[in-house]
Design goal:
Helix content: 25-40%
CATH topology: Rossmann fold
Order of helices and strands: EEEHEEEHEHHHHHEHEHEEH
Bound molecules: adenosine-5'-triphosphate
Shape: globular
Distance between the termini: 35 Å
Radius of gyration: 19 Å
């Protein structure tokens, strides 16, 4: 049996001793997609950033176990951890316009990934960048290649980010609300691209979202966070069997044709651990 891709045990994050993530444990296998859902401020992004190794210096991170691809991450020095970023663990953020370099053409930015991680010669790197845009079924890849970040839409930006992140063939891709600023059909397109990439590579994925409905359609397992804690872990297929009142509340908020309740449930203070 192959060992899991990622194993976290009791990982906590605090700032000036104020806990924002409290003793969370999770296991992710290769070829598994886990969704982390929860309300704003529940600690989803902080947890993702801890896994990717991009928390600010002032973050106090502790864990009993933090294994990634058979490496003990807590024992790695800063340099080794930095080398892991992008190459082994890649992260797609909410807004591509903040992640892209505003003064570099799109194609050059993708080509740079090949040059930086694999030392690919300039001309070959450009060719690979163009091919990666073609693989994403982008209509006019040459035009997008030569575009500047401010010229492209949010949906195109996220597809470019997918091409850029996948260029390094990471073992883990973390997508942090990649579709939250997109309209429904563009969001679906981006999700489909992510899914295709996932199927073509031996990797794991963590998908962060507010959208429990989308999470159950796209992922295998759902982790529900509330106030820095994991309050429930469920197989996506069995999400209707959620036991925790917070997850049950989230489920009741999913709009279903012909079944709109008069009032959406609200959370009562102190109800949840
Ligand atoms: N640099 C920081 N210093 C102190 N607290 C921080 C810092 N960064 C984040 N936090 C706090 O960590 C908590 C969790 O934030 P996080 O961004 O992980 O939430 P989230 O669940 O991803 O929310 P959203 O869905 O809105 O992105 C919040 O209370 C936030 O204020």
């Amino acid at each position: 049996m192959t060992s899991p891709l990622l194993e976290l045990e009791k990982l906590s994050i605090a700032y000036q001793n104020r806990g924002v993530v409290n003793e969370v444990s999770l296991t992710l296998s290769y070829q598994q997609k886990i969704a982390i859902v929860g309300e704003s401020g529940s600690g989803k992004t902080q947890l993702a950033r801890a896994i990717a190794g991009i928390l600010p210096d002032q973050a106090q991170v502790t864990s009993q176990k933090f294994l990634f691809a058979d490496q003990n991450v807590t024992a790695l020095n800063r340099r080794a951890r930095q080398a892991m970023r992008g190459r082994q663990i890649a992260m797609i953020m909410q807004d591509p316009h903040y992640s892209l370099n505003p003064v570099m053409q799109i194609g050059e930015q993708i080509a740079e990934v090949y040059r930086y991680h694999f030392g690919t010669p300039r001309q070959l790197a450009r060719q690979k960048a163009l091919e990666s845009l073609e693989k994403l079924h982008i209509k006019d890849p040459e035009k997008i290649f030569k575009s500047w970040p401010h010229h492209i839409s949010g949906g195109m930006g996220q597809r470019v980010m997918i091409a850029m992140m996948m260029a390094a063939s990471p073992k883990l891709l973390i997508a942090d609300e990649p579709t939250s600023s997109l309209d429904g059909s563009t969001a679906l397109r981006v999700i489909e691209e992510l899914d295709q990439q996932f199927k073509q590579h031996d990797m794991g994925m963590i998908y962060i979202t507010h959208d429990l409905d989308l999470a159950t359609q796209f992922c295998d397992q759902i982790i529900v966070m509330y106030r820095g804690n994991i309050v429930e872990t469920l197989a996506a297929k069995r999400v209707d069997e959620a036991q925790h009142p917070y997850t049950q509340g989230l489920l009741k908020c999913i709009p279903r044709a012909g079944q709109m309740p008069d009032r959406l449930p609200t959370l009562k203070e102190g109800t949840f651990a």
